[in-house]
Amino acid sequence: MNTTVYETNSPEETRALGKKIGALAGPGDVYTLVGDLGVGKTVFTQGIAEGLGITEPVSSPTFTIVQIYEEGRLPFYHFDVYRIGDLEEMEEIGYEDYFYGQGLCMIEWANLIEEILPEKRYDVTIEKNPEKGFDYRKIIIKGRDGKA
Ligand code: ADP
Ligand code: MG
To answer: For a 10 Å CB count at each end of the chain, is N or C smaller?
Structure first.
């Protein structure tokens, strides 16, 4: 397992980090994304989308489990599983086609579906630290290879 920690001090910096990741991502990459409300998950995700070459606006997929964007370099599958009742709902949407497909998956609230997450993935956590200022964010990216 390989952990990288980034620090940003503006939404633009967080977006730029996401953009870099989106630009470098390969088919089948899976990212989980965890952090409190207002911490910058959407800002980061918008950067990823930009890095993939998606120009349409990306927001939180509030009323659907997955929002699909096809116009970029790779398909972008943006999940928000906050409202999921049970894992059967994931089965119903055919989640495996996305998790093990050729696009980039970003899964918000992934802790709610821990049991079915691919072992090979990147876990992203965004945190604030009031002592370091209002716009400070710590962005931790753990690469999991499924072995550790
Ligand atoms: P979430 O999706 O996690 O609820 P949003 O991305 O919608 O959060 O909102 C993050 C808010 O925090 C935005 O208003 C953004 O301008 C602000 N912000 C301030 N500093 C940062 C930073 N370093 N990185 C990301 N967002 C920041
Ligand atoms: Mg959001």
So the answer is: C
11 CB within 6 A, ligand 1: yes
Q: Whose CA is nearest to atom 16 of ligand 1?
A: 11
Question: Which ligand is located closest to the Cα atom of residue 136?
Answer: 1
**What domain count does the chain have?**
1
> Following DSSP, what letter does each residue of 64-82 receive, concatenated?
SSEEEE-SSSS-EEEEE-T
Q: Measured from the CB, is residue 43 less than 6 Å from ligand 1?
A: yes
Q: Residue 87 is encoded by which pair of tokens?
A: 């894992």
Tell the burial category of 48 from Cβ atoms under 10 Å away from its Cβ (0-12, 13-18, 19+): buried
Residue 85 tokens, joined:
């009742």
Specify if 6 maps to a domain: no
Distance 91 CA to ligand 1 centre (A): 32
| CATH code, 44 | 3.40.50.300
- Residue 112: name the closest of 34, 38, 59 by CA: 34
Q: Which residues contact 94 (CB under 8 A, 6 or more apart)?
A: none
Q: Is the pTM of this model over 0.85?
A: yes
Distance from residue 5's CA to the centre of ligand 2 (Å): 21
pLDDT tens digits, 112-134: 999 999 999 999 999 999 999 99
